[in-house]
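Hey team,

Filing this mostly as a record. A colleague (T.K.) asked me to run one chain through the structure pipeline before their review meeting, and I want the input and output archived in the tracker in case anyone asks later how it was produced. No errors, nothing strange. Just documentation.

Input sequence:
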Amino acid sequence: MAPVEQDALAVQEQLFHQRVREWIICTLLFAGLYILCHFIITHFKKHTDFAAVDDDEDAAVNRIALGLCTFTLAVALGAVLLLPFSIISNEVLLSFPHSYYIQWLNGSLVHGLWNLVFLFSNLSLVFLMPFAYFFTESEGFAGSKKGIMARVYETSVVLLLLTLLVLGMVWVASAILGDNPSRQSLYDLWECHLPYLYSCISLLGTLLLLLCTPFGLSTMFSVTGKLLVKPRLLEDLDEQLSCCRLEEATVSRRIISGKASCWLDLNVELLQEQFCTIRSQRRKLELRHRASPWQRNLGYPLAMLGLLALTGISVLIVCFHVLELLLDDAAMPRGIQVASLGQVSFSIFGSFGAALQVVLIFYLMLSSIVGFYSSPLFTRLLPEWQDTPLTKIIGNCVSLLVLSSALPVFSRTLGITRFDLLGDFGRFNWLGNFSLVFLYNMGFAGLTTLCLVKKVSWALQAELLRPLGLHNLQLTHARTPRHPC
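Output structure:
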């Protein structure tokens, strides 16, 4: 065999082994995410929906739908980890450029992960989740033999009709708004219509992130204040606890005397509500009383300072990105087809800046989830521990997938990271619209600053007025109606 043929064969073998290694790594990563999501959903699902006592067919259908939900949730978690994994991989390759043990961590692997997440996100949103919902609601066509296959046939027909309806709407929208003549044909399904549909879903997800993230940031300040013990400031906690216990005992005696005697005219229900309120207040005071000085005087200030620092840094980065958008076109979010890892850091502060970017990405995602479930429109979707029905699980999986799949675009659009969007994530049409990107950045900076200032100012006002006993004063005077003489 000639040396040239041997070299070509060696290159082919190397490419084959590299591709096999990438598929093994992707399979192991997704298997780990799937197992983790299975345990998460298992702890939230309603056990009566999966019991095979009454109807084996319904239980089997629910298990199949639960498997599809677990797959979708694993894809959502993979979308959340996608951008941080890429940033960390780049910094590791920069730190150890010639290490033999990390040569598997290359641009081809990262690019393949981006493509797989994009593919599975489309598959879950367009096919799997609608199939899971219609599958649980189906009963089979009238006159057909009952069974799982009858439900599969009915679900497939309904899903096919829904797919034709959605694709027809996408075709009309792309033909009206697009300039490419190929969009006038339904044959270009994979290259045009599905990416265009996912582009609309991604735009919806980024808008949802824009609205939920500032609201979630303010909610996290409130939740932190409730979960952690606040420091004492000019207050006698022992006296408050003693008064609360005396008041609780007094209300308890009034309830007992009102039930035991028929001569007393007492509103027992109102007294019971008052008793529950006082008891909860007493438990909070006891929790604060049992807290150690380190937990009371150090935990709460550090947590609040951490939230303030992360929120302030996010707003500063977005403001700086707005200036870059006005001065340089390179600041616009764009997509690339080749992942060039290990060449240059994506932060001017090196590894520290990259770690800060990863922390900010997770922080914004967490705040968006908190804001999503705290908003009045989506409060009913909040899962309950071991009491969540299957339809609510499907709704949660779809919502989390929409939010998480938009996270890379959201982070790159705001300038949180300089890592360019890989694969089909960078093909979204609206990413090249300067007005939309500029208004998006301004909206995030304005809403976050408004929520931050409003929440922090109110919290400081409440903490300053509470020790002085002025928090119960009425700052606004209501007009009393004038009665005629």
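Quick notes for T.K.: Residues 256 and 268 are 9 Å apart (CA to CA). Confidence is low (pLDDT under 50) at residues 471-485.
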